[in-house]
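User: I'm putting together notes for a lab meeting next week and I want to include a structural view of one of the chains we've been expressing. I don't have a solved structure, so I'd like a prediction I can at least talk through. The sequence is below, exactly as it appears in our construct file.
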Amino acid sequence: MSNPLPNRRFCVAPMMDWTDPFCRYFHRLMSKHTWLYTEMVTTGALIHGDRDRFLRFDPAEHPVALQLGGSDPKELARCARMAEDYGYDEVNLNVGCPSDRVQNNMIGACLMAHPTRVAECMDAMQQKTQLPVTIKHRLGIDDLDSQERLLEFVDTIQAQGCRTFIIHARKAILKGLSPKENRDIPPLQYERVYAIKQAFPELEVIINGGIKTLEESAEHLQQVDGVMIGREAYQNPYPLLSEVDQRLYGDNSPILSRIEVAEAFLPFLQQQLAKSIPLYAVTKHLLGLFHGQRGGKQFRRHLSENGHAKEAGLQVFLDALSYVRPSPITQD
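Assistant: Thanks for the context. Below is the predicted structure for the 332-residue chain, given as structure tokens.
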């Protein structure tokens, strides 16, 4: 683990309600090299809604990718152009979300049954942007989950010029399981993702699903080109993100302590509060920073119980930090 693995990618997955700009800024304080992804944004939200609210991000977040949800080639192409105009480093198409809400609009995992449509979308997006256009998908859906179908799906998409495939190593069961159940119940099948890399060695294949440690990441990186971690990176971010630059990228920059990360977040927090953004909306992403540490439960409790108040300000966060700050050394 001490030697960096060249040309490899470590990513934090796009997660609805979690990987917003506040979360991504926090994550960037711990790792300079990790790829960060937005929550999925639908084409309709960008075309008909408050575009700036969905697309703005802090320059410190680079490298950062915009994940889009949609199935209309022209709309996706238009939104891919927006991603470039706003300065993103990549645009990614969501073909993995199993939610009923998005299925009804032909968004997410249901598109795996329509590889030609997906290929048309990818082609249209690439025609409108110079950014890398990538895809995130499952092994399959319902009974359309054979390895042969997966190979055909990847082949159809790569024929349109897509070079990066982020593969969640589970199929999605759209008929009978909730989105939450789809994150746990279908079994992980990492070897099927490895087989895609073996069949298409020229492609960048990034594996996702159930990965929790840098040790596991390094094992996967013997077989594929990248690793994407979701819930663990959000709920217990420090062990992963504080060391990934050194252990996977060979960067010898100093590792900040947990309290140093929190203190580095303070100027950003003050900026957001000055914009009248509620305290908890910004700081909820830090609840897992002191996971398993002395005072960590009190930190979370104080922030959770007091951060929602309308008048909650910086002092609430500073008071929460008082539970995890090292005690001063005293001499008799």
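A couple of points you could mention at the meeting. The radius of gyration is 20 Å. The chain has two domains: 9-249, 258-321.

User: Perfect, that's what I needed.
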